[in-house]
């Protein structure tokens, strides 16, 4: 029992906390050294409002100075009274004292408002940079993280930075200043008494160091655990249907409880251990107070110092420990903010999509001739096998290319390389004879459109969703595209027509209807190159025919790459690329491939012949 209680005090953080919540091998100690770097970077953001910040800091200096003046006036008043008044009116001192305190309050009120303004602007910029950065990061970044975890950085972590900048930053600065000022005045008044007050300082420093070495990693861990929890919440909410369908609610709740518990533990220990700081300060405070009062009293009796000096000193000794107490209290928020800022900067430091080469051009018009020459690619550099190996083929403008092959053969990967979500390790991909890495990504992608199996639709009206293909399209053009895609008739039957609002991810219409909208969106985009991932799920025959018709119209005059599952589509293809385990083993049209009697003909005989709708994955 005792061993368990002492656990957190022996390790920088409890074992139970280290072992929970994923992401093993954490080394918070090493990271803790980056704090000065994190603060430095935060300062770069703050420094954008240097002038106002300087004004605020000046006000802090002024208000701290006024606060220092108070006790001094009090001491002068007491000595004056004890010396018989000397004709100086008491009222004057009291009025002076009142003005000093009122002025100090007014100035701190103003400085607070301005600091909030600076803090809000800083966080506004930080949040903006983070969001833009997220949109410049390559696809693999998202593959490695849960969305909720990323969300947590944009929301929770930024919020932590915000609340600290709002209130704690000024308080910390003001405390440091008050501390420096108080110490100076104390030294001037009585070096001996100052020394007595200072006796407790090494103890305070040691105590603070001991505590923060334990809490720092815990605050960081809490932020990390919170990120994991948010990731888990996001994933389980978006996977609600599957969780319910497989009756996994209990398991999900149990796992949530474990993750929630990890946060409870890291939060509990971080708060509990930091909670010692004010207690420790208070105890040491009282000790220094007793020393100053006791020894100061003796000195006063002996006549070495005046009673006024003792009163001023006691007052300053209290002022000296107050900023220390404030610092101790602000420590929690500061640690939490540093942990948050570190996580934000971590994302800001991520490598972006490799930049467009300096000579990269923007293509206005493209014919649509695509060629792969000896393209080799692997997702994982350390992985032994290549996902795609030495792929070479050519697609002429307007040709329809069908990609076939068993699951995991590399069909999707080939498309991802063409859209430059990844770049090949070896070989080149050309568009109209030009290496695609010499074309800006924006321009390359503007000539391509995608109709995928689960075409993503946004929350918004049907009209807005189609217009996503080309933002400057008129209403008439949107309707024209919908007509060509065979989507118009179903939209027309809806009560709100084109103004019907779709829910998250296009909720509110059927799977087939979503496909029709995706086709309309692609028609509106009018791309030279088209990527289609044929739906494998069965859609009713009428919708299916409509989709096929829409696709036929969409493909006319465009180079199309179709990850094909239907025999009809494959048969119509000008060129079929047969992939197997990352290699392009056969290419040609349906008849010539059948004549070859190779893998395609095996696939055809084994699977396609049985059914018109399955590829027999
Ligand atoms: N993001 C990724 N990171 C690492 N490996 C990946 C990634 N995506 C796919 N792979 C691997 O690359 C290989 C090819 O996958 P790809 O998705 O291209 O196959 P596919 O032919 O499109 O399969 P399917 O027909 O099932 O969609 C597979 O072995 C897969 O496990």
UniProtKB/TrEMBL annotation:
Key words, A-Z: ATP-binding, Cell membrane, Membrane, Nucleotide-binding, Transmembrane, Transmembrane helix, Transport
Keyword set includes Cell membrane: yes
Signal peptide: none
Protein name, UniProt field: ATP-binding cassette subfamily B protein
Localization, UniProt: Cell membrane
Highest taxon above the source species: Bacteria
Domain annotation ABC transmembrane type-1: ranges: 54-336
Residue ranges of every copy of the ABC transporter domain listed in the record: 370-606
Xref: SUPFAM superfamilies: ABC transporter transmembrane region (SSF90123), P-loop containing nucleoside triphosphate hydrolases (SSF52540)
Keyword Nucleotide-binding annotated: yes
Transmembrane segments: 53-78, 90-110, 169-189, 195-212, 289-314
InterPro entries: AAA+_ATPase, ABC1_TM_dom, ABC1_TM_sf, ABC_transporter-like_ATP-bd, ABC_transporter-like_CS, P-loop_NTPase, Type_1_exporter
Primary subcellular site in the record, as a coarse category: membrane
Topology class, membrane: Multi-pass membrane protein
GO MF, one annotated term: ATP binding
GO cellular component: plasma membrane
Organism: Fontibacillus phaseoli
């Amino acid at each position: 029992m005792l061993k368990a209680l002492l656990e957190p005090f022996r390790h920088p953080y409890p074992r139970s906390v280290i072992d929970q919540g994923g992401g093993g091998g954490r080394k918070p100690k090493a990271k803790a050294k980056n704090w000065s770097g994190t603060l430095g970077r935060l300062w770069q953001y703050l420094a954008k409002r240097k002038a106002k910040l300087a004004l605020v800091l000046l006000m802090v200096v002024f208000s701290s100075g006024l606060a220092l003046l108070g006790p001094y006036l009090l001491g002068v008043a007491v000595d004056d009274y004890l010396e018989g008044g000397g004709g100086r009116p008491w009222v004057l001192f009291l009025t002076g004292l009142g003005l000093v305190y009122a002025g100090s309050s007014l100035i701190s009120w103003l400085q607070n408002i301005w600091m909030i303004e600076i803090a809000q602007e800083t966080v506004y910029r930080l949040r903006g940079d983070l969001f833009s950065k997220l949109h410049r990061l390559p696809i693999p970044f998202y593959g490695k993280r849960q969305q909720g975890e990323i969300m947590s950085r944009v929301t929770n972590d930024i919020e932590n930075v915000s609340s600290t900048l709002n209130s704690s930053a000024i308080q910390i600065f003001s405390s440091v200043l008050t501390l420096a000022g108080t110490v100076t005045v104390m030294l001037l008044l009585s070096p001996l008494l100052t020394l007595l007050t200072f006796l407790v300082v090494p103890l305070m420093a040691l105590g603070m160091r001991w505590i923060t070495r334990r809490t720092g990693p815990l605050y960081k861990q809490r932020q990390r655990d919170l990120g994991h929890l948010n990731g888990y919440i996001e994933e389980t909410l978006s996977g609600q249907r599957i969780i319910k369908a497989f009756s996994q609610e209990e398991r999900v709740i149990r796992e949530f409880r474990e993750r929630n518990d990890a946060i409870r533990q890291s939060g509990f220990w971080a708060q509990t251990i930091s909670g010692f700081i004010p207690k420790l300060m208070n105890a040491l405070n009282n000790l220094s107070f007793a020393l100053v009062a006791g020894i100061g009293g003796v000195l006063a009796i002996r006549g070495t110092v005046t009673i006024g000096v003792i009163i001023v000193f006691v007052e300053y000794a209290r002022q000296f420990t107050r900023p220390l107490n404030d610092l101790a209290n602000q420590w929690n928020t500061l640690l939490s903010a540093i942990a948050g800022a570190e996580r934000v900067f971590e994302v800001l430091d991520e490598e972006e999509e490799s930049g467009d080469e300096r000579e990269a051009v923007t293509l206005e018009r493209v014919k649509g001739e695509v060629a792969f020459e000896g393209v080799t690619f692997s997702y994982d550099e350390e992985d032994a096998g290549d996902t795609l190996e030495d792929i070479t083929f050519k697609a002429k403008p307007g040709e329809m290319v069908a990609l076939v092959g068993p699951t995991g053969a590399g069909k999707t990967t080939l498309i991802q390389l063409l859209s430059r979500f990844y770049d090949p390790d070896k070989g080149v991909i050309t568009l109209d004879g030009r290496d695609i890495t010499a074309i800006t990504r924006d321009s390359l992608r503007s000539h391509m459109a995608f109709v995928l199996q689960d075409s993503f639709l946004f929350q918004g009206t049907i009209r807005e969703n189609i217009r996503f293909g080309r933002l400057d399209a008129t209403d008439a053009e949107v309707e024209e595209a919908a007509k060509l895609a065979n989507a118009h008739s179903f939209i027309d039957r809806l009560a709100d027509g084109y103004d019907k609002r779709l829910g998250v991810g296009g909720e509110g219409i059927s799977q087939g209807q979503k496909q029709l909208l995706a086709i309309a969106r692609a028609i509106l985009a009018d791309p030279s190159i088209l990527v289609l991932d044929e739906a494998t799920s069965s859609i009713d025959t009428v919708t299916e025919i409509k989709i096929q018709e829409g696709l036929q119209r969409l493909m006319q005059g465009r180079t199309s790459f179709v990850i094909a599952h239907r025999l009809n589509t494959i048969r119509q293809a000008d060129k079929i690329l047969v992939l197997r385990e990352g290699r392009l083993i056969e290419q040609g049209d349906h008849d010539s491939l059948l004549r070859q009697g190779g893998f395609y003909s095996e696939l055809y005989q084994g699977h396609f012949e049985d059914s018109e709708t399955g590829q027999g994955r």
